Amino acid sequence: MSGTVVMKFGGTSVADAERIKRAARRIVSAREQGHRVVAVLSARGKTTDELISAAEEVSTNPDPREMDMLLSTGERISCALCAMAINDLGHRAISLTGSQAGIVTDTSHTKARILDVRADRIHEALDEDLIVLVAGFQGVSTARDVTTLGRGGSDTTAVALAAALDAEVCDIYTDVAGVYSADPRIVPDARKLPVVSFEEMLEMSASGAGVLQLRSVEYARNHNVRIHCRSSFTEAPGTLVVGEEETMERPLITAVTHSRDEARLTLLGVPDHPGVSGRIFTALAEANINVDMIIQDEPDNDGAEAHMSFTVPRTDLRQARLALDPVAAEVGIRAISENSDMGKVSVVGAGMKSHPGVAAKVFSTLGDQGINIEMISTSPIKISCVVSVEAVDRAVRALHEAFDLGADQIEVEHPFGAPA
Ligand code: ADP
Ligand code: ASP
Ligand code: MG
């Protein structure tokens, strides 16, 4: 008997009955090759979005604990249906909720972190020759409540299970054939990347490449789990996300990523006292809000006010205001303004560490397009620019072209797999 494989199917890959049966056949085929199979499923199609809308229809500020009770149902539906389809193929399957599967998290509802995987129930089921289906995106908190892991969290469920079960590989089946040099929905001639290092994938996911949730990549790097991100519609190999030692020499730039989900907050008239910034960002951290870019204008000699701007995910804007308003009143910030229509474009590449000039090219490319750069941040292998959301697509295409990332010389694939 060969080893354990974890196979994760995303929302599009289980969107309707036909696709659930297709996933079931693929899972059975892995079992017939002799593997012990654990499959992690996402909610079908747009189910999670619909559940969020349903909550917003009944409440302006849905209670996070109840939100998690609601959101966790989508993945359970997929797993139960897929188990039925597998049973009809003559195999035995059991579906488990995140809690039954032993996914233990902290108590931060709607973006919980996995603390432990107690996989004894999965081991028992595998020992009984069952195919195990685990509802993605959810767990049970140390306070025994149902939690969810943040949007895209089924990827993290899959990687965490692969680590706990010492699986050979964590296959992430999705609606694109792998990780591309840019989102193929924006850049049709984007190139499929055969191998990406954890380091680069972390920067890509952190800057908006939602094909793999950021935490899944962090988890994979920390536990050395090989991820194979591939199409659920074809057999072709996809993208391996692995340790840097397994990647060959990297090009200067690997990918252009983007996000349309940024919001900017500007604090006007920030008092010039030590400790004020600490107060502001402690309040945000305590509200579990991830601040991305920060800019502070020093007051000049004319006595002009000091401003501070930073970006947060748009979905956290309301929570950020709730956390900031009392601090602002207390420390004497004059006003807070918001812009919720911001986006971000980034270029990522391990090769830029040793090559100057990347930033210059990014800025001049965006400048030539007449795109205003509102904020900038860099890491050794990434340059990100905040731009207005309507400029994002144009910025991505221009940068992809400027850095010659296209697939011209490489075989062109249909990025969305077989037609639906
Ligand atoms: P799933 O439901 O399978 O988890 P997601 O929608 O979360 O799928 O992720 C797949 C999507 O990620 C693709 O349809 C694609 O539009 C988007 N995407 C963004 N950036 C990239 C990229 N660099 N490479 C591949 N896909 C990307
Ligand atoms: N269903 C959840 C979402 O839409 C989790 C996932 O798909 O990974 O975000
Ligand atoms: Mg996803």
The radius of gyration computed from the alpha-carbon positions, rounded to a whole number of angstroms, is 23 Å
In terms of structural class, how would the helical and strand content be classed? alpha/beta
End-to-end separation: 35 Å
Trace the largest sheet across and list its strands: 3-6-2-1-9-11-12-10
Give a short account of the largest sheet.
Answer: 8 strands, mixed
Summarize the structure in words.
- By secondary structure, this protein is an alpha/beta fold.
- 33% of the residues lie in helices and 25% in strands.
- The chain has 11 helices and 18 strands.
- Strands 3-6-2-1-9-11-12-10 form an 8-stranded mixed β-sheet, sandwiched between helices. A 6-stranded antiparallel β-sheet has the order 14-15-13-16-18-17. A 4-stranded mixed β-sheet has the order 5-4-7-8.
- It is globular.
- The model is unreliable at 409-420 (pLDDT under 50).
List its salient traits.
alpha/beta, ATP binding, single chain, diaminopimelate biosynthesis, 420 residues, kinase, disordered C terminus, binds magnesium ion, binds aspartic acid
Describe the secondary-structure layout:
Layout: E1 4-9, H1 17-32, E2 36-41, H2 47-58, H3 64-88, E3 93-96, E4 103-105, E5 114-117, H4 120-127, E6 131-135, E7 138-141, E8 146-148, H5 154-164, E9 169-174, E10 195-197, H6 198-206, H7 214-223, E11 227-231, E12 239-242, E13 255-268, H8 276-286, E14 294-297, E15 307-313, H9 317-331, E16 335-348, H10 358-368, E17 375-379, E18 382-388, H11 392-402
Parallel strand pairs: 1-2, 1-9, 2-6, 3-6, 4-7, 9-11, 10-12
Antiparallel strand pairs: 4-5, 7-8, 11-12, 13-15, 13-16, 14-15, 16-18, 17-18
The chain binds adenosine-5'-diphosphate (ADP), aspartic acid and magnesium ion.
The site of adenosine-5'-diphosphate (ADP) has 18 residues, from loops.
